[in-house]
Every structure is written in structure tokens, then in C-alpha cells.
Amino acid sequence: LQVFDDEGKDVTPHPLFRSDPNTVVPRQGKLLASSAYFGATGSGFLSPFSMHQTSGVNGSLGSFSRSRLLTSYNFSDVQVRQEEIKEWTKEDLDRRVDIYLTETETIWILDMPSVVVSVESEDAGRVLERNRIYVEICKNRPGNDRFVEKMMQTINGAAKNKEVQCDKIIMEDKGMLVTSWDLYDSFNVSEIEPTSKAEGSRATTGKSSKSHTTKEHNQTMLVSSNRGSTTSSLMISESAVLARIHEEEECHSEAILTSENFQQNLFFMERILMENIFQPKLAAYRQFPVLIDPDVTSDMSGTVAAVKEAKEEEHDKEKKDKEEQKDAFVDPSILSDLNKTPEEIVPPRLERLWSYICDLTNGHNVSSMAWSKVNPDLLAVGYGAFDFKEQKKGLACCWSLKNPMWPERIFRCEHGVTALDFSMASPNLLAVGMYDGSVTIYNVRSCNNAALLDSSESSNKHTGPVWQLRWVEQDRGATGDGKKERLICISADGRITEWFIQKRLDCIDMMKIKRTESEKKKLPGEKERKREALISQQAAGMCFDFHPKDTNFYLAGTEEGHIHKCSCSCNDQFLETYRGHKGPVYKVAWNPFSTDMFLSCSADWSIILWHQDSQTPILTFSSATAFVHDVMWSPKSACIFAAVNESRVEIWDLSASILNPVTSCFANPRVKFTSVLFAKNTDCLLVGDSKGEVSVFELQNLAAPNNNKV
Hints:
Methylamine Dehydrogenase, Chain H, alpha+beta, 710 residues
């Protein structure tokens, strides 16, 4: 049979195997005898060939014909090895043969090197260097012509088993209360389905005309014959009923948890628990007598009584010793004077009561604090870093004295909060200044944490951090009665702005703080120095404070270390400039009683007392080599003020000493104090630090305030 294409060429397929006529055909016996010799090579060749051969042979020939045909082919390429047959003698069988067992060479079937290297290994440095080089290559890859996108197949890493140690698994027994009506309902539902099936089967038999006794008999027979199916249906129906009951309970419990009444009850319960926990500290804060718990056990009361008796005995003994020393060494004429003075003068001190801190505020820097103008128990705290490198998202939280463990309102800000203040005209409005220069107003009365107004759409918004922000009340003058409230901000871009609350926040500039040259005395014979070129004509504003009586005047502290007295009527020039600090002025504060005096603190480690009519400092206080971040006058005394530097908080009483503070409290290690605030109605002090904690201190043993003495 031949095959030709369209052009007449012979395209007949040639067989893969061609026999050589010159070779001698081997015998059948030797071929079959040497089949073991072929092994892996011969079997692969013989198997397809035999299948091809047997396919063309008639099936009726049987197995003998197939073997005859198989031997008729000539295997010229197969070399048959004739095994030499050796006969074993009796001596060979009795001879002793030594067999030595040794280990064979290890054959590695799979070797996948690890992709993880220990830090303590010798190759750790080399691997880190390779990783660094790879990261640099990945950074330089975009837009580089030396790198080409190419797909390749990689091998997945082998899974590894890692054992870890965990806590002991505690098993608990759970129970469920089931009432009698639950049992009745569940069994009643389970009986409905088999009864309906039995009634259907009876209807199909056509025996509905029989008596009641016959029907009961048929029903009994049907139930007895289908006992297995009835049991399974009972189990299925019971499980369905239990699942339905469980779903109803979950829906009912979820509805209870989300109900307003339940939330209100939880709120009241939380208040009660907080008052029970913090009752002694809150009583000390409000200067109430501390109540003793009547539920104290007898053992505890006995221990407390024993400790008190021991302290009283020791105190009496010390008194006797002092009296004996006085009688022995003191002139009797002086004893009368000594008896008039108190025997022990207790120095003032700061007693820590509690702290406003939670997991949400932990680690955030406390930048500013402000009391509510209406509610003296509501405190607003701003959280944000002062340094550019430490910037992260900020927080503005409203804390209440009734719950020192969690804030009442939490406002999340995209940038760090640097200043905040409550409004007097609208006590529910809280203005917040941020590090990026934006100003936002929140409604603390609403449970919605979204901002009410912000300065994002204002074209005159600040380009630097808003370091201080304050609501100021000013007289309307002849235009109207009462007072008008304005929102004033000072920023690092050198602008003091007034913000208007309309459909959106917008501002105008009250003052642009210009840089002033420092006055340096010229030495005799010294040539005039060339003026240094300024990078910016405006100085960064850091703080401000309005006069307590005449709100038309205010002070502004700058980053240069100067304090400018400004007027709201004139925005072109300063009324006075006070030069005394060598670093940025962080805070200025008018004295609320002696309105001609004001304080300033700076990064030059000093606090300066000024008189507005004198450009030279009256007193300079410097007790530690650290930045003084904040200072505040006491609302009850004209001579007492508090200051915080990075290492401690200090209480100064100018009537007692102008050289050293009367008391101080040091900060914890690696913690810096950042802000200070006096309580309104009590002798307490609030101090914020760099870890997000606002500590409440009680001022003890301070001299009685005398507002008439200035």
C-alpha cells in the first residue's frame, strides 16, 4: 500500500523498525530466557512492539500463535547475554563466607535551603547586606531602562511546623435554664408533624367512614410500623425548635443591648461605680471631709487603731523630748515667745489624687488644657506633639470628674492638636487648633464626633502651627449692648487672626508680627556691623494674652524672645516691646488681681515678672536648667503662680520667697511635663506630660490667699 500526494510524490510512512536480512534470527528459547537481562531497557522496547504485532494478528490464533509470530521477527539490535551456568559442589556449600555490612552513601532526594537566617548566625551580616542592596535596586527600578519585566517560575517554600507554648486551656461547664412551658411547646411542635402524616395516610386508604375506635386502631398500627421514621423526625424537629429559640434569644439580647434605656442605665451604673471607687479622692478634690467606709472588717479596724496608737505614742514621745531640750538649753524668758508660735510648721506640698489617662491617650503628648466656662467639672485636653519629627494623628478629649478613667467625648483629628478652648457664649462649642494650621470647631453636646466647622475651605488659613487659640469677650461699644465673643488665634506664620463663624470659618488678620532687631550697645571705637539679611520679614508667634480689664490690649510672645504689646485698634505697629528672654517665649499671662503685672516663660530656662510700664524685667526666676513650657497665675492669690519645666512642676509664692519655689514635684523618668492648669473652685492643680497623662494634684498647707495684698 502506497500513499501519494497531489504532486505525485510517495509519502508512504516508513516503519520505525527495519530488520537486517544478514543477521541470524535467534532462537525462541534464548530470547525468552534472556528476558530478565533486558530489564528497564528491554521491557520498554518489547512492550510496544509486541502490542503492535499482536494488533495485526487474528484473535482466533490464540496464545500459541502469538508466540510463534513473536519469534519470527529478527531482533538485530538486541544482544543476548548467555549466562554461564556453574555447578555448585558440596565443598562450596560448606565453605564459610564472611559478609560485612557497611553504610551506603547518603542519597539526597530533596534539598531545599532555608530562606530564613537567625540574627545570631555568622551569615546574618551578609544576608542583611544583600537585602539592603535588593531594596536599593527596587527603589531605582522605576523609570530605569536597565530593568526588564520578565515572568519566571519560582519554587514555593516548604511548610514548617513550629511549636509554641500557650496557656492552659480552661474548660467551663455551660448550663441552660428551661421552663416547663418551653418543654411543652417543644414537644407539642414535635407531635404536629407525625400526626399530620398519619392523618394523610388514613385519608388515602378511604376509611374515613369508619368509627372512632377503628381510626385510633389504624393510627396506633401506623405509628408502630413507622417507629424509626417517627424517632428521626422527632430529633429533627427538636433541633429545629432549639435553633429557633437560640436565634430568638440572640435577637432579643441584641435588641436589649442596643436599646436607649439599657445604654442610659449602663451610663448611670458607670457613674455610681466611679463615685464609689474615687469617693475619697473626689472628696479631697472638692475639699469635703473624707468618709470612712462602714463595711471595714473588725480585723482591719483593729489594725488601723493599733497603727494610730503607735503613731500617737511616738508623737507624744517626740514632744516630751523637745520640751526637755527647751527646758535644759533655752532661756526661760524666750519660752513665752516660743509657746506663741506653732510647734511644727508643715511645709506646703503637692498630693497626687488621680490621673486622666486611658489606652487611647497613652503615648500622646498633652499640648493644651481648658476648662468649660459653664461646667466646672468638664475638662478639654488636646493631644499633639510639638516637634515636627514626632507628628502623628491628634486627639481632643473631654474628661469629666465623674469618670476619670474614660473621656466623655473623643474627637479624632488628622493632625496633632496644639491648642483648644471652650466658648463662653455657646458653651457647647470647642475650638481646636492643629499643627498644620487648620482650625476646627466641634459640638460637644452632640454624640456625633464629626467637626461642625473647619477652615479647610478658607483662603486665609494659617500656614504654620496654631500655637494658641482663645475665645475673647469684648465690649460692643456704641453699636450695641453686652459683649461680643471673638475667636483669636496666633500661629507660627507670624499672624494673629480673628475667625468668624458663619456658614464656614473665615478669618482676617489682626496683626502681622514683624521681626525686630535686637538692641545691642555699641562699644567705643567699634565699627557699625552690616545688617543680616532676614529669611522672612515676619516672626513666628508663640502665645498671646488679653488684658483682664481692657480687652482692647493684648500681649504677644514670639520665637525671637520678644514680647509685644499690641492694640486691636492698630494693626500696623506695636505699642511696646519687652526684651528680656534669649529664647522663644512659650507663655505670657496677666495677673488677674494686679492687672499691671504679667509673667512670661521661655526656652531659656527662665520666668520673668514684668510691669507693663517698664521694659526692664522686675524679677527673674530660674530654678532648673530646662525649658519652661507653661506658667499660670493662681485664681485665688495675687502672689502665687505655677510653672512647669521638663523635669518638674513648681509652685511659687512671692510673699514667701522670690528665690526658690515653695514646693515642687518631679516628673517620672523619661517623662516631660508640658502644660499646667489651676482648678477653678478648689485648691488643685492639673499637670499634663509627654506620655498622655493629666495628673491632678492637691495643694496642701499653702498660706491663706489674701487678694487685697498685691
